[in-house]
Amino acid sequence: MSRKCTRLGLSAGITALALTLTACSGAATSAGAGASNGDGTEAEPIRVAVVSPHSGPYAEFGEQQRAGYQFAADEANANGGIDGRRVEIFVADDLGTNEGAVAAAQRLVQQKDAKFIVGTIATPTTLAVMQRLASWDALAFGTQSQGDALTGESCSPRFFRTNVNDHLLIQGVGKWLAERDATDWDSVAADYAFGHGSAEGLQQVADAKGWSVDKNLFAPLGTTDYASYLNQLDGGQGLLVSLSGGDSVHFLGQALDFGTLDKYDLIVGNAAMTTSSLNAVSDERLIGKYGTANWGPTVDAPESQAFVEAFSEANGEAPADFTGAAYMAMQTIFAGVRAAGSIDPSEVATALDDLTFDSIKGEVTMRAEDHQIEAPMYMGKVEKVGDRYDLVIEDTIPMSETMPEPDPACSMPEL
């Protein structure tokens, strides 16, 4: 049975506040009243460890996320903190490797006492951090890692996913495609958990609906030359592109040059049509293509639009899609702290189980059985909005239409 926690109100705007960062790690704190312990001392702050890439194919995502974490902290502190507790952000570069992420997270936990970890992107990186959470007495919150295993066979009582997973996205795509005519598909995907999960999901949908998937191509992470893959994509009714970050930029740019996208009636990107990728390619020929979204600045929900307006006022531009994903993770942490009345990781984890709270995706629930957020996903169409390209949300696919039962492989141990 879910429990309800009220949401921190979004401010109309945030003034610029000081930010201090070092090359590999640092802290960002904002002015704001802290709670008193009754003896005149300030209550211990909520310390968040942001472990994200500063270089490599996911560097842009890391930058977008850091903007979201910082904005959430600034906003909370400007409103008196969370239950009066100041929010502090500590940042470290994961160096683009699993080992780098583990080392960075451990440093922030041990040196800064930052017990709430966010920012990892690739599923294997998130899994590497998850395996150390118990020894650190810390919690981690997934914002972009989509691999089903994180809330399936590798689930952890200390990990909470605040974004959709591969299954949810592909099931959502399947329901969206049911109203369209494409029944003959090709797929190109990243050669790791995310890409394989996406391709397998498409195959499952195709099998259930009697469609065909003719080509399943996988490219290593960091591929820069897609010629050998593009030469194999000879056209059809539909093409699913499950690449992200720099990989999607290289693929889309080269696919346009090769004329590959013109060979298909319908192009759908799974994590490929992000704000950063679209504007890195910056080609009007992408207009009209479709993509999945965990969230986007055009989501038609009051909480979402309030966030977009406040962020835009503070930063002079609308938030990118993964800025919103980061903000959502912070909303989850804040809801857990409020419900627990504590920042003790074990108490916050317990409080989050089946907790319902308001977010930029509306009312959501953190499912206790596997720690997968119950929230909608979105489908959008590429358009040019002002001077930038965006995936403009056209369809909201409710959780009730895509959310499976908890994976039996997830045997959630006690904390």
TrEMBL record:
Any idea where the Leucine-binding protein domain is? 45-384
Q: Does the keyword Plastid apply?
A: no
Where does the signal peptide begin and end? 1-27
Q: Which PROSITE patterns does the entry mention?
A: PROKAR_LIPOPROTEIN
SUPFAM superfamilies linked to this entry: Periplasmic binding protein-like I
Biological process according to GO: amino acid transport
**Alphabetized CDD domains for the sequence:** PBP1_SBP-like (cd19989)
**Top-level taxon of the source organism:** Bacteria
Check the record and name the Pfam families matching this protein.
Peripla_BP_6
Keyword annotations for this protein, in alphabetical order, are:
Amino-acid transport, Signal, Transport
Question: What's this protein's family per the entry?
Answer: Belongs to the leucine-binding protein family.
Q: Which PANTHER family match?
A: LEUCINE-SPECIFIC-BINDING PROTEIN, PERIPLASMIC BINDING PROTEIN OF ABC TRANSPORTER FOR NATURAL AMINO ACIDS
Q: What is this protein called?
A: ABC transporter substrate-binding protein
Per the UniProt entry, what species is this protein from, by scientific name?
Georgenia ruanii
Taxonomic lineage of the native organism:
Bacteria, Bacillati, Actinomycetota, Actinomycetes, Micrococcales
